[in-house]
Amino acid sequence: MAGLARLQTRAERTNFEETSLHADVLDFIGQVRRAAPDLVRVGSLGRSAEGRDIPSVVLSGNGAFTPAAARRAGLPIAMVNANIHAGEVEGKEALLAFMRDMTMPTEAGGEPSLRSLLDQLTLVFIPILNPDGNDRISTENRKLDLVALEGQIGPPTGVGTRNTGEGWNLNRDYMKQEAVESNHLARFYGAWWPHVFIDCHTTDGSIHAYDLTYDTAHIDRSGHPGPIDYVRTRLLPSVSEAVFKGYGRRGFFYGNYRDQDDPTSGWETSPGFPRFGSHYRGLTGRLDILLETYSYIDFRARVETIGAYLLEIFRYVASHPTEVMEVADGAEWETMAAGQNPRPDDLVGINYGAARRAEDGSLVFDWPVHFLEEADIVAYDRPSIRARRIPGRRLVTYRAPHLARFIPSVSVPRPFGYLLTQTDIARKLRQHNVELSTLAEPMDLDVEAYVVLGSEKTTSPDICTGIERFETVLSVRKERRRVHFDAGTLFVPTGQRLGNLIVYLLEPESDDGLARWEFFDPSVRIGEPFHAFRLPAPIRLLTRKA
Fold first, then answer.
1. How is 335-388 classified by DSSP, letter by letter?
2. Of 219, 304, 384, 462, which is the most exposed, with the fewest CB atoms less than 10 Å away?
3. The model scores a pTM over 0.85
């Protein structure tokens, strides 16, 4: 145990000149595991596309080292993911330091309050989700360019790439699940089913005065609103206040100026696509937290800042265990009940965009519809903002529209379930941990069918390096039909914990569903029914487990 006091991350031992390679991470984890075997279990999500191990680390003072044991312990489960974008390395370094500091005994210099957290909650760390991108170190990655409002300050020896070795942007892959790393994370998330999920990033963008911006899901008209509202109105403001008082680090909800020279033009968050992790986890009904350290403060400050936020989140969850678990579990139960007995007025938002034509005639989308809110944004004087000066000469608070919560442009009543006649969709649904079965016998059923009226392609940016990825945009008409279904037809009930996600995945007009990502393309025919049929009301079906 005394050896932990001398253990340092690569960032620490190089005075924050370097970041940890994959081998450094594995070596550090191994040393912590050997020094504190009663508090640490090391596992693996699986292998990356290039064959590197993606380690997981569970910290517990109660022996809660498996999902089943953690649930028996009756304590909150908090999962932290880092390095999904491997040029954004602060979360990785902070998690390694937490592994050491939380397991270090008092006599070796450990802090009792850190160790006691392991008696109050189960922590599950994924320190390096994107190991292939992590080890592509270059000073050209995230190179600072304040004129373009891009890049970051340090570490001077460089960082890895945003995308994986295969080129996938993992934080745009949650719905389509094309990268093997995404598959591993989804399976791991489904097994542990944490009450709280924290995703660590680093952001560039507008000139402001926040050390970190944070966020949660914004599509509360699609996922269960309970966890989203709790994180937005209670957990994050409390944590932000604690960090400012305890560490002097300023934070606010994630955003950028609509006009980069005008801080009053609007403070706007990212689009509401669940291809982004926060919005995806909002669909799953768990408490989600996005942490984005500010790339224009130095590397050491970024690691210290995200470490402070993580610690205060852990402390908040540990001091509100019943409340946190009831919010998450209550959303799960209510989602299941809603699907088992759907109401016609229970609408699920599935699309937040407005289509328009570009000058070349191509189909593009805007995301213009927001709730009308305002916020005070702490930044610098306007000359400093226009000059891209960091830090600015003086602090100024601006009042601006806060463009952070979305109103769906398309919503649908929640159905009892879906019947899928394109059965290869089962593989993609299983990747999301969706429960499904098949019809055990042929049946004629009254269903809601979508007749395909049109199909068009649009390009999809920021998806994969070197690959131009397209999306399918369908227009449909819903009608009642009597349809014959063969034995073996897939049945996907919405009365399960992922009921909201199922609706978003299977509706043909969803802006981020399986149809949008071309998985239904082989079966789409203009004038014919879309191959996902809706059962609007409960019905008894003879099914077999798929």
1. HHHHHHS--TT-EEEEE--EEEE-TTS-EEEE---B---EEEEEEE-HHHHHTT
2. 462
3. yes
